[in-house]
Amino acid sequence: MSAQIIDGVKLAEKIRTRVKEEVVIWVADGHTAPGLATVLVGENPASQSYVRSKQKACGEAGIQSFGFNLPATSSQEEVEALVRQLNADPKVNGILVQLPLPAGFDEERVLREINIEKDVDGFHPINIGRLAQKGREPLFIPCTPYGCMVLLEEAGVKLSGAKAVVLGRSNIVGMPVALLLVRADATVTICHSRTKDLPAVVREADVLVAAIGKPEMVRGDWVKPGAVVIDVGINHVDDASRPRGYRLVGDVAYDEVKEVASWITPVPGGVGPMTIAMLLQNTLRAAKMAAK
Ligand code: NAP
User: Fold this and answer.
1) From 119, 121, 206, 231, the catalytic residue
2) What is the pTM (predicted TM-score) of this model?
3) What are the tens digits of pLDDT across the range 147-156?
């Protein structure tokens, strides 16, 4: 039987509509519209496109966005000075430094400069540290991992006691997803490029989150029948039949895996749209926190 699809487009739309409605009420109550500052260093086309999408989504939700584009030749100190300036600006409730920064920048130092109450991307070392510690609460949860958890919740997946396997251990996806799954009482295995016999490890999973950036690497016979599969991967593969000459695929061979899994997220239309929805939600939360 074919898996049920967890529709990220529909869920993200629901969250964005709710944020928009809450912003209307917030402004009607006499507050300034929430504000998100985006900091883009250099001219990486993918990063430019992500930042544009985030700014557009802010506009649609009634959130102000302030875009700051710095050349790749900027110094570390210039980027950090901009972050400090945004920390001090009351119109700015959230600061998003688009990652990755160009080679040569010390990413952690830049992220450390962000006031944690404006860290809507959740990557400040204190927020990540709290995520990793029992009984501590981060002020913000990183948007893509947060989106994965909301998708699992939408599908009604029982995580407590479930065996979860996370493919990938990056700072922005794999590791924070794994930490969130642990917080949800799943038993978590984290896999990476040195993991031995990956298919056998994946086959143990009741819940699989794939974030490795390898097109369609997870095959149908890697997946336990009835498993829930969240595919974070966004990979371009050549496709001469498409107007752009490529199509997007996930880290999971969708057509095969959907015949085995109980629930699955498509690519595109799964985790991708959730990232922006969670960013808007975090920005509204930051504005409300700042007003307290
Ligand atoms: P990344 O920083 O390149 O990390 C990839 C991870 O996968 C690393 O931990 C790496 O292991 C592991 N890995 C790579 N090849 C592997 C293999 N053959 N077998 C097992 N593990 C392997 O990537 P990322 O930034 O986490 O992104 C992962 C994917 O998610 C990409 O396709 C990206 O485009 C997508 N993404 C989507 C969103 C969204 O909004 N939907 C957001 C962010 C990223 P090592 O640690 O050993 O190197």
Assistant:
1) 121
2) 0.97
3) 999 999 999 9
